[in-house]
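Troubleshooting: if your tokenizer reports a length mismatch, compare your output against this known-good record of 180 residues.
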Amino acid sequence: MPGHPQANEIYLAHPINDQQYIPASNYLQFIYEEKARYFVKMLMNLAVTKIEIKYCRGVKTFGGIAANIADINDASERSNAGVKTELSKDNEFQFFGEYLPKHESELPQDNIWYEYENTWKSLVEQRLIGKAKNLMFTYDYSMKTSLGTDLSFIVEKCLAQIGINTEYGQHTKWEMKLSF
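Known-good structure output:
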């Protein structure tokens, strides 16, 4: 990111370039875009003739409040109240390119991500050693995290327990079709 650090902005270190810091607000987007640029450049080094990439990302959050109230003398009688909310947001990106390579396939030399990406290494091996002509990759990943809190307190003769739970799920899917 060009320029000086901005006030009231949190920055995260680039995972490979320790001289670069990226605003936390768009860190993942920056990394994805940078990796996409290096990936396409690597494919061009491999004499790709056609690239189709589809990227989808969905974000879902669920929040709930549940309350259990019981008389201390008779804890077997409990009543539940619950609320659940859901918010969903999806992002999609598509890329299509056709190329007329003017060189033979070669190993990428200046790709900072190549060393860390085993899928890329496999693709390069399939192209350079196996002389692959058409390849299709699908990467489908879901991550779910939750943040929960239980609050317990005594009000006269009643025990009230309130649970607040927030779950956040992120789903990412890449589809790539390549021709050489």
